[in-house]
Amino acid sequence: MSSCNLSSPIDASLTKLQSLSVIHLDLNNLSATVPEFFANFTNLTTLNLSSCGLVGTFPQIIFQRPTLQVLDVSNNKDLRGSFSEFPHETSLQNLIVSDTNFSGVLPDSVSNLRQISRLQLSGCQFNGCLPNSMSKLAELVYVDLSNNSFTGPIPTFNMSKSLSHIDLSHNQYNGEIPLYLFSLSSLQTIQLSNNQLDGQLLEFSDVFSSVLDTLDLSSNNLEGTIPTSIFQVRSITILQLSSNKFNGTIHLDLIGRLENLTTLNLSHNNLSINTTVSYAQRSSFPRIRILKLSSCMLREFPGFLKNQTNLIYLDLSNKQIQGIIPNWIWELGFVHLNLSHNMLIDLEGPLQSLHENLVMLDLHSNQLQGPIPILGPYVSYFDYSNNNFSSVIPPDIGSNLLYMMFFSLSRNNIYGRIPESICDAPNLQVLDLSQNNFNGTIPQCLMGISETLGVLNLQGNNLGGSISGTFPKTCSLKTLNLNGNQLQGKIPKSLPNCMALEVLDLGKNQIAFHAY
């Protein structure tokens, strides 16, 4: 009875169907507690109550049903529960309580789950150390304990000869990563990110027989050099090692050996990147889709990028890259491009417009000069702040702001009037034009779009006249900064409509206040 639009509590009359072995009530809106009578179905093998809006406390007695093989109560945020003791005679193979309010520690009796192959406890409130008895779970195939508060070292899972997926991310595990994890021939996914793991990674064994597809060790305290054997695991498609303390030099020709690689993240370490790649190697380089090398020491754009036509996400920020942004980079069809915090001074040009695929463009904190590049039609995040751009904003810019949510030109040399067409951005949430040389008056329509606008920062310009226009009753502004202009007149009486306002700065003007 999955997805049947059921919207009432589970009726006790269901107990009359004593021969039931499989019960699927998932994807309904029961909004009720779980009745204990499920434990009375003597033939019950499968109980699926996922995504039902369940509340209250899950009955412990249901775990005692010896015939039960599959229990899924996931995606019920208001369902509480815990594990006290698992019985010796349990037949559970799949135990799934992800995204519920289950809490407490895993008992030593978890070793009684001798047939368990799928254990999903992610997104709950579990805590404490994982019991060493988990090493006895020889049938485990899929383990997801992510997004909890588990602590202590990672236990042994090497009895599980068929283990293919282990996700312990977003917890508080500490100590070194057990070497056995990298020697399990069946493992396809290892996700250990956002923990407190430390120490060095040792060289992998049996790399040529490995089927490892995803390795995510990001946001830990790992140090030392990255083992070169990682780059011999040709099955890897996702490699994420960011936000650690790795050091040394990574040669791009090593990365070129990972022929199936689609995602690489080495950001926020102490790594240097050797970009030397032969022309022949460029053509055989893996077709990467996501490349993040932020804060790695790199002084030029890697030439192999010219051939990366599948690349949709590129982050080369905080890298000391010098010189100009080459034209070919705009032809790659990025969705997300971050070149911020470098030493870039110009665009190769002439640049007619940005690629239509581009959604997020971040060039802030460089030394870029000249006119601001024309926007693509679907850009939603646009940051050119803290550069040396010098031009007017095109009067028809509004036609390129239909999807814009974040727009910043602050700390440049932009001059002229603020075009009224900027108000044609129906989704704009942040507009920051501060620390420029704008003159004229503030467009009245900017007050009108404060229904969607959360931040309006025009501080440090040469804007004059009065603050005209009306703030609507549905004003959503949280920050209004007009400091350091030449504004006169009185504050609009409609300003109190902005009930969410947290920051208001009208200083260094000639504005008078009403006596309400």
UniProtKB/TrEMBL annotation:
<keyword id="KW-0675">Receptor</keyword>
<keyword id="KW-0808">Transferase</keyword>
<dbReference type="Pfam" id="PF13855">
    <property type="entry name" value="LRR_8"/>
</dbReference>
<keyword id="KW-0677">Repeat</keyword>
<dbReference type="InterPro" id="IPR046956">
    <property type="entry name" value="RLP23-like"/>
</dbReference>
<keyword id="KW-0732">Signal</keyword>
<dbReference type="InterPro" id="IPR032675">
    <property type="entry name" value="LRR_dom_sf"/>
</dbReference>
<keyword id="KW-0472">Membrane</keyword>
<keyword id="KW-0325">Glycoprotein</keyword>
<dbReference type="GO" id="GO:0016301">
    <property type="term" value="F:kinase activity"/>
</dbReference>
<keyword id="KW-1133">Transmembrane helix</keyword>
<protein>
    <submittedName>
        <fullName>Receptor-like protein kinase</fullName>
    </submittedName>
</protein>
<dbReference type="InterPro" id="IPR001611">
    <property type="entry name" value="Leu-rich_rpt"/>
</dbReference>
<keyword id="KW-0418">Kinase</keyword>
<dbReference type="Pfam" id="PF00560">
    <property type="entry name" value="LRR_1"/>
</dbReference>
<keyword id="KW-0433">Leucine-rich repeat</keyword>
<dbReference type="GO" id="GO:0016020">
    <property type="term" value="C:membrane"/>
</dbReference>
<keyword id="KW-0812">Transmembrane</keyword>
